[in-house]
Amino acid sequence: MDIGSPKHHGYVGLEAEAAELSNFEPQLIPGLLQTEAYTRALAKVLPGAKEEDVERQVRVRMLRQERLRHEHPLKMWAIVDEAVLRRAWGGRAVMEEQLEHLLEASAWPNVVLQVLPFDIDGHPAIAGSFAVLSFPEATDLGVAYLDARGGLFLDEAADVAWYRELFDHLRARAAAPERTQTLIRKAAKELT
C-alpha cells in the first residue's frame, strides 16, 4: 500500500487516531513493522516509481511507525502468511535485517505477531490483506480497511464485525507467538 499517495491519507489519519490495529498480510510485512530498506525495496518495484516518490513513501512509513513506540502506543496484532518471511524483497541482507526487526518488535509489549505456517490446511482470508482499526471511544465500532483498488473503508457494524471474526479465525489458526519466533529464525537461516 503506497500510503504516501493522497488516496491513502484517509487510512493514515484513521490509523493515527486508533487505539488498536488488527492487520492481516498474506504477501508483505505489515507496514508498521517494516524496516526502511524493506519499504524502499517494495516502493522501487512499482511501475514508474520515481526516487522522490520512493523516499516520500519511506519517510511516511517511518513516521507512522512512531505510533508503536509512543508514550501511549498503538496496540498491534499482526498476522502474516509464512510466505511473507521467505520472499526476500531487496535481497538477503535487507530481508535478514527485516526478520531481525520482526523478532525485536514481537517482543514489544504492545505488539503481537503471528505467522500462518505452511503446515496448516488453509485459512479463510483468501480475499487478501485487511486491517481492523479500533478507537478509544467505546461507542465507536471501528473501521475495516481493505487495500483493494485504492482502498475500501467499511464502517457498518456488520462489516466491521465480520472482519473482526475473520481475524479471530486467523488468530486461532496461526502459530502462537513463541512458535512464530521460531518460524522467523528458521526463515532467516534458510535465506538464499
TrEMBL record:
InterPro entries tied to this protein: DUF5753
Annotated DUF5753 domain residues: 11-186
Top-rank taxon: Bacteria
One Pfam match: DUF5753
Name of this chain's protein: DUF5753 domain-containing protein
The species this protein was found in: Saccharopolyspora shandongensis
Lineage: Bacteria, Bacillati, Actinomycetota, Actinomycetes, Pseudonocardiales
